[in-house]
Amino acid sequence: MKQKKNKQKRxxxxxxxxxxxxxxxxxxxxxxxxxxxxxxxxxxxxxxxNYGRACKGHGAxxxxxHRLKEALPxxxxxxxxxPKDPNILVxxxxxxxxxxxxxxAEDTYKAARELGASGFQIEFGEASIAxxxxxWLEATGLWSELNQxxxxxxxxxxxxxxxxxxxxxxxxxMLLMSEAFKLGGETATLSxxxxxxxHAGSCNHEEVKQHRINLAERLKLEEGNPLDVSTTSKKNKPxxxxxxxxxxxxxxxxxxxxALLNNHNREDFNIHLFADGPLDExxxxxxxxxxxxxxxxxxxxxxxxxxxxxISDCEIDVLVDLNSYSTVHRLGLWSAKPAPVTIGWFNLYAxxxxxxxxxxxxxxxxxxxxxxxxxxxxxxxxxxxxxTFQVGYDTPDIECPAVDEPFTFGCLGSGYKITPEVRAxxxxxxxxxxxxxxxxxxQVLGEDSHKKWFAEFFTREGxxxxxxxxxxxxEHKEFIQTxxxxxxxxxxxxxxxxxxxxxxxxxxxxxxxxxxxxxISRTSATLLNSAELHDFIGDNENEYVEIAKKWSSKKQxxxxxxxxxxxxxxxxxxxxCDGKGLAKDFERIVFEIIS
Length: 595
Known about the structure:
Strand content: 5-15%
Number of strands: 13
Structural class: alpha/beta
CATH class of the largest domain: Mainly Alpha
């Protein structure tokens, strides 16, 4: 190509030659040949009168290749040369938005509008800003308008689905994501379908399994099998056991992990942690208790193939995935077996679908024997809750609601877990319990428009607004102290609480739940069962409502207050906080696999 352009330069006057080069670059840009376009635009010298136009095209091509830091100065130069060109501003706003400068991007989109900018690119950018600011309701409106104007665009449908999911409308999100995938076939959409399928009441067991297998097959092609270790693990001690997680620094979330790791028998096991998070935050007080012989690796800069090689070089015998779908970019590690024995535990609540995970550890409550056919893994069960936890760090003192306050139901679960079915059950509970109120706190409700939207579901059904207390996110200690205002917690479904349920119990507040039709709908039940709090577990949604009504009666308030004051002692003396028992039982399973 360069030879042709050189011939062109020799055969044409300079300005005519530059015009041809620019036209070739703009044609390449329009047809999606971005690297070719860059080659053309780079041939225009800084001294040329056409340099601003070249920078415009060059910056646009770099933006579309996501080479943002290179694109920015070129687009700035183009704007100085061509200040009335709105398309340069739109590209510049996209660069700012993708680099995290949402305020700059918003102002730049406005300036572009003033110059006459319109069309898909700017509308997509404006909707993306609302989405990235977690203004989900506003985002659904903007994406819906885009979907009306530019129908069957897979990226619009994907983002519209994501926004609805964050508001708890997961079944609706699945429909939109499915349509998006049919149209675009993007791996990101396939990943989201696999992630959301267990959350969606509309998906049955077989559909959940198929969504996850579909993703596994795609990742196997894209990863090219990072490494497949099929050799048998050594049986001699000590066993090298590795744990993969992006959340070792999240002590409040990793309570079951610390219950296991801090009680592992170091004579039988050498512990290796492969961390996709900051190492200096792992040994925080009350979380992981370090041992001199333990090995910790910072793997944030490693791709899946490199991580698989590190695991192999460390001669890991047993590798445990603690991430599951919470760290989508690490799923590719499991497109093949990176260790002789591979296990999923802690953060899985359905099949992984990944060929590289051979075993899955749960318990009798969450995995029923007749459901094992819906798992690609072989199932093993602990003799206590698979979410057995220990709290080793300071937490707020247990507080009781004021005696003269109305009975208060509460939920501090994530906004995306509060589905239409959950709202309907809560409305029924409030309608059938005189003088009670409901406190809900989560990040979604930090936005005023979301509060109004959420409250309207209740007021339309005749529930007075003053019976609702809707609060946004807070610093963790303040957030946990909210339980001091709650008499009885209500679980979400089909996606139950995990950490939320543990924290509610630890603050003395029992959780009403029921055993649903899938693992994700039984995580609270396994915790309460192991804690011997059986009176708060129903068999179905109707029993969930009846249990909530029963415990809200005046004659039960004294019983709840007594239970609250004794709760921590009760938990610590039950299986649900028996970390030593968890470690011993987990090690039993590992020995069974190896033998």
